[in-house]
Known about the structure:
- By secondary structure, the chain is α+β, with helices and mostly antiparallel strands.
- Helix content is 42%, strand content 12%.
- The model is unreliable at 126-139 (pLDDT under 50).
- The protein has 3 domains: 9-67, Orthogonal Bundle (434 Repressor (Amino-terminal Domain)), CATH 1.10.260; 144-310, Arc Repressor Mutant, subunit A (Orthogonal Bundle); 313-464, Beta-Lactamase (2-Layer Sandwich).
- The two termini are 31 Å apart.
- The longest helix has 22 residues, at 105-126.
- A hairpin with a 4-residue loop joins strand 2 (199-202) and strand 3 (207-211).
- The chain is built from 17 helices and 13 strands.
- It has a 6-stranded mixed β-sheet, with helices on one face. A 3-stranded mixed β-sheet has the order 1-3-2, covered by helices on one side.
- The chain has helices at residues 9-19, 23-30, 34-41, 49-59, 64-67, 70-82, 94-103, 105-126, 143-153, 159-169, 174-184, 216-231, 233-243, 248-267, 270-279, 284-291, 295-302, and strands at 188-192, 199-202, 207-211, 306-307, 310-311, 316-321, 326-331, 360-365, 371-378, 393-400, 422-423, 448-449, 461-462.
Amino acid sequence: MSTKKLYAGAKLRETRTRLGLTQKAFAERLGVSLPYLNQMENNHRPVSSAVILALVQEFDFDVSELAVGDGERMVSDLREALADPIFRDAVPPVVDLRLVASNAPALARAFLALHRAYLQANERLASLDEALGQSDVRPGASPWDEVRDFFHYCDNYIDAVDKAAERFAGDRGADEAIRAAFEAHGIEMRDTEDEKVIRRFDPAKKTLWLSSRAAEPTRRFQALLQIALLTQNDLIEATLDLARFQTETARDIAKIGLANYFAGASLMPYARFLTAARTSRHDLERLARQFGASLEQVAHRLSTLQRPGNKGVPFFFVRVDQAGTITKRHSATRLQFARYGGACPLWNVHRAFETPGQFLRQLAETPDGVRYFCLAREVSTGGGAFRAPVRRFAIALGCEVTHAPEVVYSDGLDLTDAAAFEPIGISCRICERQDCHQRSVPPLESHLSVDPDRREILPYEVAG
């Protein structure tokens, strides 16, 4: 049994603030003294098992929130930001980063925002971006990155939107729900042959145009997205108000993101989908047929099943393009993805392009010793015509190996064989492995030894 102490001061403060309780009242409800609570909230003492029990009994607290959350994501993001060569002479140890993430998460977020602003400014200077002369350019994260961070730190689960989608879907199938909504709002759905259009809505004529070349799951999803924009505007706007985005552009992008979220949650309603996922042991193809969705939609939805009190298997989900650039990412596990650059080349998601239509399985271990079961597949789609462009992507879905028996794709693998786990990392600059044959740049926190009379796979030796 693990004896690792649990420090979760920021989460305790957040919980108390959300409940509107003073430290004194909170301490009384938890059955501890005021000084003891103060010490726990400031991470001078670990959270005891008695306090965890009281949190559950008094406040129906989901204890899994204490185990994996913003802290690990923040440490990963901080390490990657500090891998920037600008910090090469002043990189704090990981233990300090953990203290910052747990004790001062607002400071950590401010640092990450500052680093993003620095990167953005450098990119503009390097490319002589004309935007430098415009008065409406503001420093900070790009709107796209700002929205990605919003979903990232929400654990990719938006409770109010998810439950609204579940109420909308009810016990009906998606097609029936779409027909009923369109009839109620007097909307006509038509096909379009325009190669550039997947979805176009004409509010004056109350006509929704969907690409006739798109696959049925795509058409179904786009119809539900339009329904979200028409029927859930107040809810979406209220959620956007809470997010407090820095720019209107970020808010506009996030609005589409929330409408996408509603569409996915309507197509695959939480309770029904979670039950089906458990019954099929997370068989993506069976779930895709049952809910009329694509493999990518199913995999993404599996990574969002983090409703407090009724969570699914904590999965990570990622989509990469042929250049290895991550275009979608989310992790409910301890595994976090590179924010800048591509993913680890040793990861099986890159090999998926070589085996279209097939699932690739991999047992992998990250430098921190955590082991994962990884599933990858190419999901490229044609444009429905000879000269139409083909969109080529690969997706990966995975979980920590302790959950692998709940996934049908793990059958036949020896999950106890340490030699079967391949070493992978996050990005080369923060990967601690000393003998990786695919390393592109040296690890930031290590010393290098260069011998002009000796050459191995790498032109240097990582001395640790």
